[in-house]
């Protein structure tokens, strides 16, 4: 099961529309894939999609086994056209880049506890 927590969880899509328009379709694909196509959405563990601040760049997926994935639009600024995924909040290692639907599907298909 995935629980969504945050101060303004619609910020991801609202800010993308205003600031990083090329990431909007990616964010929508990520949301649908995570909530409907990911094995985590149907297992018995509780995982969290957390928004730590009010911005669109403050989302992380925290798994019940302690793994974390932090999603950041890249490059920084209005020209963002991909989402980089890091394994820690700051100074994390780049896990993958999500720039196409197949990359998004593979990333979430591979997540399991």
Secondary structure category: alpha+beta
Please report which band the strand proportion falls in: under 5%, 5-15%, 15-25%, 25-35%, 35-45% or over 45%.
Answer: 25-35%
Strand order of the largest sheet: 1-2-3-4-5-6
Helices and strands, in order, run as EHHEEEEEH
Mean pLDDT: 89
Share of helix among residues? 25-40%
Task: Report the end-to-end length measured between terminal Cα atoms.
Answer: 11 Å
The number of distinct structural domains comes to: 1
| Strand elements, count | 6
Which residues form runs of ≥5 with pLDDT under 50? none
Cα gyration radius (Å): 13 Å
Given the structure, what is the number of helices? 3
Shape estimate: globular
Largest sheet: 6 strands, mixed
Keywords, separated by commas or semicolons:
113 residues, alpha+beta, six-stranded mixed β-sheet, 3 helices, 27% strand
In terms of topology, how is this protein built?
Layout: E1 2-5, H1 11-19, H2 24-37, E2 47-51, E3 59-62, E4 68-74, E5 82-86, E6 94-98, H3 101-109
Parallel strand pairs: 1-2
Antiparallel strand pairs: 2-3, 3-4, 4-5, 5-6
Summarize the structure.
This protein is of the alpha+beta class and 113 residues long. The protein is built from 3 helices and 6 strands, in the order βααβββββα.
């Amino acid at each position: 099961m995935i629980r969504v927590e945050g101060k303004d969880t619609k910020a991801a899509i609202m800010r993308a529309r205003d600031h990083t328009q090329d990431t909007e379709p990616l964010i929508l694909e990520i949301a649908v894939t995570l909530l409907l196509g990911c094995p985590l959405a149907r297992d018995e563990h509780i995982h969290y999609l957390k928004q730590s601040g009010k911005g669109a760049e403050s989302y992380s997926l925290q798994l019940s086994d302690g793994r974390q994935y932090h999603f950041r639009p890249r490059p920084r600024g209005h020209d963002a056209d991909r989402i980089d995924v890091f394994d820690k909040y700051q100074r994390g290692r780049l896990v993958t880049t999500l720039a196409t639907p197949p990359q998004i599907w593979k990333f979430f298909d591979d997540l399991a506890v």
